[in-house]
Amino acid sequence: MNAKRLSGRLAAVAAYVDEGASLADIGSDHAYLPCHLALSGKILKGIAGEVAAGPYESAVQTIHEAGLGEKVQARLADGLAAIRPEDRIDTVSIAGMGGPLIASILENGKERLEGVSRLILQPNINARSIREWGMANGWVLAAEEILKEDGKIYEVLVLERGEAVYGEKELLFGPFLMTGQNEAFREKWERERKSWQAILRQMEQSSRDEEISDRKEGLRQAIHLVTEVLGDGTNEGK
């Protein structure tokens, strides 16, 4: 992967960036995403934010080698602190982190999102945390995508300004993903269900402790939701 050729998951993120956007890519690593979009002429400007010195220096090098110094800028900053008012950023992307970490970055830097109209987020795990944050903070899901690359499954969530109330299934599975149910979606949730079933069996065999009864009930409910959404009639306890 480089600035000219993105990985599948980053290409999916790039597809949701509007023409003429001003993008801040937080946790940009090598700055491949903003540089790719700048090289293709899709964005007006890009900020590559990094909290660690090593990845920041890699981003600086990528920008220099691509000759994009006037269009893309690397910044060493914590989360959304990489965004300045004069940047007039309208799109923020955060990819390659856990959902809870992405949600915490958004929460801790909410004041930096004042002019932002679109968030493009690619959590590696627990996308639910992002859906919950969006619902609580005036952001609605505009699109979702799920894909498999190199044996791993990734979700892409696109949020825009607005109000929405999501139910338990929508928070867990994603309203768009649950409706579409492509192969990656079904593989992910079949895998999750099997994992939860194994944990539940182990808990039931090893302990009768009442302190874990809530955990067991939570697992049963989660397994039931997956079975209901996948609609395959699988025996939930097996």
Automatic annotation (TrEMBL):
One of its GO terms (biological process) is methylation. InterPro entries: SAM-dependent_MTases_sf, TrmK. The keyword DNA-binding does not apply. Gene3D superfamilies: 1.10.287.1890, Vaccinia Virus protein VP39 (3.40.50.150). One of its GO terms (molecular function) is tRNA (adenine(22)-N1)-methyltransferase activity. The keyword Transferase applies. Pfam families: TrmK. It comes from the Bacteria. Keywords: Methyltransferase, Transferase. This is tRNA (Adenine22-N1)-methyltransferase.
